[in-house]
Amino acid sequence: MDRIIPKIAICPSHELAEGQYRKLKMRFEGREDECLLLRFDGKVYAYINRCVHMPRRLDCEQQTVFDHTGRFLRCSMHGIVYTPQTGASISTMCEGEQLRAVEVYEEGGEVGFADFRVTGFSC
Ligand code: FES
């Protein structure tokens, strides 16, 4: 039997502009965690804010998670670069390893979580 995935609304679509991101505190798999919610090339993505190299937040050393081009995510600790679309590292270090993706939806002018592992969040 298919599992019904509850949707949790986060914000109106217009509050997440192209190339921007928001950080959300959320309850994920029963624990407090931090999520990066971002829009890239018009699509919304979400990842746990934890580098694959060490358990550091991508913005631990700088106030952004995008690199200087705005085309990639970058961990400010040692510089691993990730594709926003997959969360996969394209750096030599940890090549191919992926940020943990969180399922999200965008419909009817609203963005939200559609992931049974998420049971709540705050901004
Ligand atoms: S902790 Fe992110 S690149 Fe090392």
Written description of the protein model:
This protein has 123 residues and is mainly β. The protein folds into two domains: 1-50 and 100-123, N-terminal domain of TfIIb (Single Sheet), CATH 2.20.25.680; 56-99, no CATH class. The protein is built from no helices and nine strands. It has a four-stranded antiparallel β-sheet with strand order 4-3-2-9, with no helix packed on it. The protein has a three-stranded antiparallel β-sheet with strand order 1-8-7, with no helix packed on it. It has a two-stranded antiparallel ribbon with strand order 5-6. The protein is globular. The relative contact order is 0.26. Pfam families: Rieske. GO terms for molecular function: 2 iron, 2 sulfur cluster binding; metal ion binding. Keywords: 2Fe-2S, Iron, Iron-sulfur, Metal-binding.
Structure described in brief:
Helix content is 0%, strand content 37%. The chain is mainly beta and 123 residues long. It binds FE2/S2 (inorganic) cluster.
Q: Tally of extended strands?
A: 9
CATH architecture of the largest domain: Single Sheet
Beta-strand portion reads 35-45%
As laid out across the biggest beta sheet, the strand order is 4-3-2-9
CATH class of the largest domain: Mainly Beta
Query: Compute the gyration radius: what is it?
Result: 14 Å
Principal-axis shape: globular
Distance between the termini: 34 Å
Mean pLDDT across all residues, rounded? 96
Which structural class matches the secondary elements?
mainly beta
Total domains: 2
Q: State the helicity in percent bands.
A: under 10%
Strand count, sense and closure of the main sheet?
4 strands, antiparallel
**CATH topology (level 3) name of the largest domain:** N-terminal domain of TfIIb
Helix count from the secondary structure assignment = 0
